[in-house]
Known about the structure:
Elements: E1 2-6, H1 17-31, E2 35-42, E3 49-54, E4 57-63, H2 72-80, H3 82-90, E5 101-106, H4 112-122, E6 125-130, H5 136-140, H6 149-163, E7 167-170, H7 173-182, E8 189-191, H8 210-214, E9 220-227, H9 234-243, E10 250-257, H10 261-270, E11 276-279, H11 284-291, E12 296-300, H12 313-319, E13 324-328, H13 334-341, E14 344-348, H14 352-361, H15 365-382, H16 385-396
Parallel strand pairs: 1-2, 1-5, 2-4, 5-6, 6-7, 7-8, 9-10, 9-12, 10-11, 12-13, 13-14
Antiparallel strand pairs: 3-4
Amino acid sequence: MRLALIIDDYLPNSTRVGAKMFHDLACQLIKNGHEIFVITPEFNQDVKLKKSVLDGVVIWSFRSGMIKDVGKIHRTINETLLSIRAWSAIKSEIEHGYFDGIVYYSPSIFFSFFVKKLKKVCGCKSYLVLRDLFPQWAIDQGLINHGSFIEKYFRYFENLNYNAADHIGLMSERNKSSFDDLTANVYSTSVLRNWSSYMPVKPYDNDISYRSKLGLNDKIIYFYGGNIGHAQNMENLMRLVKGMRSFQQAHFLFVGQGDEVELINKLAYDWELNNFTYCPSVSQDDFKYLLSEVDVGLFSLANSHSTHNFPGKLLGYMVQSLPILGSVNPGNDLLDIITDYGAGDVFINGDDENLLNACIAYLDTNYRLTRGNAATRLLNEKFSVEVAAAKVVRDLSGNT
């Protein structure tokens, strides 16, 4: 099939996990014999539409205003215009039957108009890869007031987003159950777990390694990589850093971007944490090599979440055989999955004592290796891109 993949952020310029996941999916679909076009916004181009190719994936970049790392009002306006700008850029390129299927990724929630136009012109079906129940998580975090105009505005586009899909893939059983309950089971849904290709890398040579550049050659590095925002409740992890101050061999390295970067740096300063380093986001390639040099993968989800997300950063940890240590919201089945496989230690956010005790246990090399190997087994059995690609095509084709 010739498939259109739609996402609001893509390689080679993106540092986000969603972009990497979608590229892995595109490459796997090509391996399986399909022709893949990725349609995505670009924020620094003069022309309406720019065409390029990356690893065999045809990329159509349409001109857009900034939607990442900008103010909320600016972002909302530009996201709202995504569909109009996308359709304006590519409508002259397609004709009836041009695409055999559409796969679109959420967030963003603003591609529904574009998807419906493509479906009408091409006469094909669409598959929504739903990774983020927005605006619900923002309401849970108190970032959007329940019943406010802005909630109603986002809910309107959220519903349009769902209605544009013939099938919706959610990241876990409990996420699917919650979504079905919230939407009264009116949509065709199934579980589509996050995915990654299994391509581990070896560390850089010692003279250019991150360990050397950061002065951490003799340390056990606990690593957090990705979004540093309200949904993660980063203070939870900073309390862990504080609790580990007396263990001189342990060091915490946080790499990423988001609304709580200022917070973690302030806490590190206020608490005089000399076992902590923050670095801004790095490229996808550098990120892979960075993962090859650390020892434990950290993650955190805010206790107040009512949805059950699976952070994409865990895929990178699994690829590099890193044990997983973190916190989740109550009811999140991620705790059961990781625990059952012995791939790490996960606790309800706020259980600081058990999180700290588990963190101390990871100072033991054998403990880390055992759980790290189990993490890779979990990736290959539950989160492989081969499984994800086959499922997406099967659901698009109407074969269950």
